From TrEMBL:
Domain HDOD: 32-219
UniProt-listed Gene3D superfamilies: Hypothetical protein af1432 (1.10.3210.10)
Organism expressing this protein natively: Nitrosococcus wardiae
Pfam families according to UniProt: HDOD (PF08668)
Top-level taxon in the UniProt lineage: Bacteria
InterPro entries: HDOD, RNase_Y/CdgJ
Protein known as: HDOD domain-containing protein
Length: 291
């Protein structure tokens, strides 16, 4: 019997796992995360051009916790007006139904970053924390550019790693994967983009958000001269990763930075003046927003 080096075994294990997942995906046998029903309903209703705010409110008020969080957000430093509000209808009037659609999706997203096994749940929690940080930075970056909607950038930051979830869900039933985090990380790197696209397609998300999860790992992407949502998330992710090994990229070679107006000579984007805003976005996503 030929001796197999541990690294060779690792490569074989990764290839086998990736092949199995992609085959299951192609045959509709792979379990994909599902968006909570209230978010699906809100997105469907808001996408109808004939929808009224009253129809949206009717769905939201069926979820007391969600209603309370929306009212709290409408009174938060990010969106507060001259007078406090105390009901969903007033929150919709202040925020608008398109913003509420993305807010509802963001608020319920945390529910799918959960697992039954402690080790996988820990990884999902870390993934959620990373995603909220990228979302908050993306929100601030998009707010600096007139052509972007900050709430879409926020949602893009939240979902950019969504393709990792089916892999972690499958890993719960594959003990040898859980025991080798390096192998698991390599599998996530290979598969998270195509799986993320499959998830968002199944949720009927718009193409610009699908592109975020499908293309955010390609730091050299440069499909057009104008910046897009993927560029915003790429830059937000770079900023979020500062200090980590994976952040040691040559910023001169990343088109997204220049397209968003940043000099390639910088190694960090100065967001000190936006720290309060970043903290508030994260607090909203964690249900801790202050009034």
């Amino acid at each position: 019997m030929r001796y197999q080096h541990p690294e060779e075994n690792e490569v074989i294990q990764i290839e086998q796992f990736c092949t199995e997942i992609l085959e299951d995906l192609a045959n509709n046998h792979l379990v994909l995360p599902t968006l909570p029903e209230v978010a699906l309903k809100i997105r469907e209703v808001v996408d109808d051009p004939n929808t009224s705010a009253a129809e949206v409110a009717k769905i939201i008020v069926t979820d007391a916790a969600l209603s309370a969080r929306l009212i709290k957000i409408a009174n938060s430093p990010l969106y507060r007006g001259r007078h406090p509000i105390d009901n969903v209808q007033m929150a919709l009037a202040r925020l608008g139904i398109t913003l509420v659609r993305n807010l509802v999706t963001s608020l319920v997203m945390e529910q799918i970053f959960q697992a039954t096994s402690e080790s996988v749940d820990r990884r999902m929690r870390k993934l959620w924390e990373q995603s909220t940080q990228v979302a908050a930075i993306a929100y601030v970056l998009a707010g600096r550019i007139d052509t972007f909607k900050a709430d879409e950038a926020w949602l893009g930051g939240l979902i950019h790693q969504i393709g990792s979830l089916p892999i972690l869900m499958r890993a719960e039933d594959t003990p040898e994967l859980l025991e080798n985090e390096m192998v698991l990380d390599k599998i996530i790197t290979q598969l998270s983009s195509p799986l993320g696209k499959a998830i968002l397609d199944s949720w009927r998300f718009p193409p610009e958000l699908v592109a975020v999860t499908a293309e955010h790992n390609d730091l050299q992407r440069n499909p057009k001269s104008e910046p897009d949502l993927v560029d915003v998330v790429i830059v937000a992710k770079l900023q979020s990763n500062l200090g980590e090994m994976e952040s040691h990229e040559d910023w001169h070679t990343i088109p997204a930075l220049a397209k968003l107006g940043f000099s390639p000579d910088i190694s960090v984007i100065n967001l000190e003046e936006n720290e309060t805003e970043i903290r508030e976005v994260k607090a909203i996503l964690e249900g801790k927003s202050t009034l």
